Amino acid sequence: MATYKNIKGFEIQYLDSDPTTSNVGQVWYNSTTKTLKGTTAGGVTLGTWASGGNLTIARVRLAGAGTQTAGLAFGGGSSTPNNATQNATEEYDGSSWTNGGNLNTGRRSLAGAGTQTAGLGFGGYTPPATYRNESEEYDGSSWTEGNNLNTGRGYLAGFGIQTAALAVGGAKSPSFALSNDVEQYNGTSWSEIAEINTARYSLQGAGTTTAGLAFGGRTPSPTFNNESEEWNGSSWTEGNNLNTARGYFAGFGIQTAALAAGGNVPGSPAITANTEGYDGTSWTEVNNLATARRQLKGNGTQTAGLVYGGTTGSNTAATEEFTVPEFVTKTFTVS
Description:
Elements: H1 4-8, E1 13-15, E2 27-30, E3 35-41, E4 48-51, E5 59-60, E6 63-66, E7 71-74, E8 77-78, E9 84-85, E10 89-92, E11 97-99, E12 111-114, E13 119-122, E14 125-126, E15 130-131, E16 135-138, E17 143-145, E18 157-161, E19 164-172, E20 177-185, E21 190-193, E22 204-207, E23 212-215, E24 228-231, E25 236-239, E26 250-254, E27 257-261, E28 275-278, E29 283-286, E30 297-300, E31 304-308, E32 319-323, E33 327-332
Parallel strand pairs: 1-2
Antiparallel strand pairs: 2-3, 3-33, 4-32, 5-8, 6-7, 7-10, 8-9, 10-11, 12-13, 13-16, 14-15, 16-17, 18-19, 19-20, 20-21, 22-23, 23-24, 24-25, 26-27, 27-28, 28-29, 30-31, 31-32
């Protein structure tokens, strides 16, 4: 009969405590607990949310960019004074937010792309009915005006980097018309490219200008959307649907590893903490946000993400970090 040593070439270790670091597939016997243990690979379904530092300004419908440890939040609307449009920018270092340089044009329901030191903000909305076409570039301290979008719109999705970004869908004139417009930025100007199949607003996006993903959103009120569309650099293709249709949620990651968190959903209560992960083929339910909210924003990767802001019924400054372990320890049993 084959033994572990015959198969692996070495014997199982006898340890009095579990190792603090390990390799996937490592097996050992814990002599203290008298159990056989080993490590398996982590995955998005094992990810958990933990509290981070609060934004300095509680706000909704803001934009963001960057990573879990170097994030950027800008624009939006705050409750003081009455739903005031914001131009404030904040930078996250993995534990706390600090003020950065202000946007030149304050607005809400805009989109963002890029990094903390090379960010891009575009589109947006200012009351009572102005759909913005401005683009601004962030260098880590200040914003500089760039060339405008061809079609002014708010409630749109954005993804990519400062020199190669996509602006997808949204709402535009006249009177909150749904948009299926897609534009690509090359670091200098925006060009119109292939439209998404389903016009919608308050959707989210992830990925790059050659491998992107647009998902969720809203079509004529009160319809919530669960569709996903994948972008290959030239055309959009229908992918598998979200399990929970939603709008005004947070979304980030890449085409083959995206996350959707929170938002507005059908029914009552209409605010959700539900979170789903995409693997390039299908969406899977994962651990929920600690606090259900809508009109929040997120950025980072599927294994190290960040969400912040939004409303629970009142504006919140709360930040939550999503982290997926590289490996997990399992105890083996005869069953």
